[in-house]
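Wait, mind explaining this?

_____
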Amino acid sequence: MKEIRLDKYLGEMGEGTRSQIKEMAKKGRIWVDGIPEKKTERKIDPERNQVTVDGRQVSYAAFEYYMLNKPQGVVSATEDKRYETVVGLIRERKRDDLFPVGRLDIDTEGLLLITNDGDLAHRLLSPKKHVDKVYFAKIEGALPSDAKERIAEGLILTDGTKTLPAWLEVLKTGEITEVRLTIREGKFHQVKRMFETLGCSVVYLKRMAMGSLLLDESLKPGEYRALREEEIEELKKGK
């Protein structure tokens, strides 16, 4: 890892603004390798130097990756004046620049990747990459007998938007029908709009997978965990 300025190191780890960090150093609150450090512009090696603030070690993370089981009532944003945000749920984060990769509607649950890796986010969201996104849905209304075929061909939504071919699996039929839908794009309210086009309405929606990343079923809504190294590598490889 390259050397980095001390104020940048601490700023990225959420310890304050550059001016605040400079003031902290003047007061002897910042130590590097057991010695008080007054020069916040000095460069340090995150892998070799030990940095503490008020006696508390501040370890550095260039990138963070979290799998969140998004609950209903929380918005897919970094900040919001009215609602709690998905980033706000990640209590143990080190960095202040995390963001959700894509978005789930406020009433949608399930898998959401939270990271600060912009390159990975771009690859997962790029329309050219056609990354699979798998949803479990409960719907009201009778599905047309040719629903699978129409979805596989690509639907024309009510506003004239054409969707890419997708895959529908009917899991349970009845007053409420349960389905699994795999799409390769992420248009606004796409899943709900697709079923509306078929004359149905979605009453529950949960994302189960994005690319190679599968929702950890042990995570309750609102819970999260850091991604394992192999999960990160598979996402980067596009598996």
